[in-house]
Structures are given as structure tokens and as C-alpha cells.
Write a structure and sequence with these properties.
about 120 residues, 5 helices, about 50% helix
Length: about 120
């Protein structure tokens, strides 16, 4: 499983990538939507974990742009401060069960990743 983590909180996203790698999951991370778009041009991922509230580009908009480049890519959203409207839109895109709140429980995240990839 190859995963791209996108969150503007560098400390959080780098720690999450490290914790996933301990579990045998290859996880790269970036801190902006722009960097995610660059990364997907040279790498192939199975799944992207996107922060809903990214600066300059929402996670929802980023999902659409990433999907244009890789239609097979699966998504999970997460947020630290999403509004009810964000939840409605994000869960409509990924499914309510794949819209997670920070801090993310690593075991729940791995379970959700496996579920998304089995769909």
C-alpha cells in the first residue's frame, strides 16, 4: 500500500508517516496541495489522506485535481476543525465513515485505509 499524506501541520504529518511505516505502509507526506500535485506526477499512490482545511486549496478541491491525474486513487479526509457543512461535503465525497477527526487513532486509520482499498 502506498499512501500520500497531505496536511499543513508538518510535525503531525511526518509523525503519522513514521507511524504508518512502522506498520509496513509506505507513506510519503507533503504540506500543501501544490506539493501533492507535483508529487503525484512522479509517484503512484493507492490512497491519499487529505486534510480538509489546507491553505490556498481545500482538501476537497485537491481531491478533484488528484483524481484527474489518477482516477484509481482512493481518499480519506481528516480534519481538526471542520464545520458541519465541511462534514456534509467531505462525507459525500468519501463516505461518512472515511471522514476522520484529528487526532487520528492510528489503528482506526489503518483499518479505514484497508476498507477503502478493498472497495
Amino acid at each position: 500500500m502506498r499512501v500520500l499524506l497531505v496536511d499543513d501541520e508538518e510535525e503531525l504529518v511526518s509523525a503519522l508517516a513514521e507511524r504508518l511505516s512502522i506498520r509496513g505502509i509506505k507513506a510519503d507526506w507533503v504540506t500543501s496541495g501544490e506539493d501533492a500535485l507535483k508529487r503525484i506526477q512522479s509517484e503512484t499512490y493507492d490512497l491519499a489522506l487529505l486534510d480538509v482545511k489546507l491553505p490556498r486549496m481545500s482538501g476537497l478541491k485537491l481531491k478533484k485535481l488528484l483524481q484527474e491525474k489518477n482516477p484509481e486513487l482512493k481518499f480519506i479526509f481528516f480534519t481538526g476543525h471542520g464545520s458541519e457543512n465541511d462534514f456534509k461535503v467531505g462525507s459525500a465525497e468519501a463516505g461518512a465513515q472515511y471522514y476522520l477527526a484529528k487526532p487520528v487513532n492510528i489503528e482506526v486509520l489503518v483499518q479505514k485505509m484497508n476498507e477503502v482499498l478493498e472497495k
